[in-house]
Amino acid sequence: MAGAATGRPKDSYPSLRSWTMAQIRSRNTKPEIAVRKAAHALGLRFRIHDANLAGTPDLVFPRWKTVLFVHGCFWHLHHCERARLPKTNADYWTEKLQRNARRDKAARRLLKRSGWRSAIIWECQVKDAAKLDRILQRLFDLAGANPRRRSR
Ligand SMILES: [Zn+2]
Question: If phi over 0 gives left and psi between -120 and 50 gives alpha, with beta otherwise, what is residue 119?
Answer without folding.
Answer: beta
